[in-house]
Amino acid sequence: MATLYTSLATVATEFLQRPGLAKSTRRSYELTLMPLLQEYGRSPIEILTRQALQEYLDGLTHLAYTTHHRHQAILQSLFNFAVEQGYLKANPIARLKQRKPEREKGEHQTDEVIRYLTPEQLNLLYRLVDSDLRMHTLIRLLHRTGARISEILSLDLAMVNLQEHKFQVIGKGNKRRWCFYSEDAAQMLDRYLRYDRGAMFICGV
């Protein structure tokens, strides 16, 4: 049974530690849930209303609609888990409509299969840029954060939190958001800053 004032962070931790969850899936879920937990992690899960979660999802304007759908699906799974474990009586975002594609952003619905690079293709890409420290760092950050290339190229060191492996970008509508990166990307970034550009970032001045 749920205890009084169980925080969203507590439930999310249990959700991520479920047996049988693949390591890569767990890491993907962690990165997806991180912004939500930063905003509401300490809040009792039972006070998170449909409106609050809708506003949170509406605020993810930097995401393509397909990625936005994935974020919403993970949130749905999290709150379904909370119901199954007795923390909630009902999922607050059950049957919530998904965001529609925005034509002004060049988005459109399609039945085409989205193609991703295979692990072998990614490894080949990394090998091809291995001798170019700047390009290798850029590719790894693009891969690990999901940030736009324009956002990374305009980044400067003041926006980067090296200890917590995250950086701020300014997206559409001049909205700031945090992007989180993995340990391997952190190692490449450290090498780049130390041996290539000193105190500067990719295109920082």
TrEMBL record:
Keyword Cell inner membrane attributed: no
Give me any GO biological process, just one. Answer: DNA recombination
Domain Tyr recombinase, chain residue ranges per copy:
112-205
Core-binding (CB) domain boundaries: 6-83
Please give one Gene Ontology molecular function term for this protein.
DNA binding
Record flagged with keyword DNA-binding: yes
- Gene3D superfamilies hit by this protein: 1.10.150.130, Intergrase catalytic core (1.10.443.10)
Q: Which UniProt keywords apply?
A: DNA recombination, DNA-binding
> Superkingdom of the source?
Bacteria
Protein family according to the UniProt entry = Belongs to the 'phage' integrase family.
- The name on file for this protein is Site-specific recombinase XerD-like protein
User: Which species?
Assistant: Cyanothece sp. (strain PCC 7425 / ATCC 29141)
